[in-house]
Amino acid sequence: MEIVIDGPTLVFSGDFDVRSTWMARSVIYDHLATVEGDVVLDFSEVDNADLTALKLLAVATRQARAEGRHLILQGCTPAVRRMLHLSRLYRVLDVERSPLIA
Questions:
Q1: pTM (2 d.p.)
Q2: 102: in domain
Q3: pLDDT (tens digit, 9 = 90+) per residue, 61-82?
Q4: Stretch (H or E) spanning 11
Q5: Which of 9, 64, 78, 91 has CB 3.0 to 4.6 Å from 69, enough for a Cys bridge?
């Protein structure tokens, strides 16, 4: 897992799973503490995500909402979307809708 900071956006790449949750938690919460306004998590380069990682996002989303902000998931790959639906966490997380491909 690699996370690159691009302004208010965190760009994730690789596998987002139990092995990377500690690093991701640290980066997300540090970013929420330093950036004003909403934070975007770009998942367009994420190959896989597991339930532990998605639970981390749910808790971080709750924290952001408590502060009147949003944590927005952008560019979710089909594998990430599948896990969001299987876990039903798409109801809790702010997932940006991707345009339909013609």
A1: 0.90
A2: no
A3: 999 999 999 999 999 999 999 9
A4: strand 9-16
A5: 64
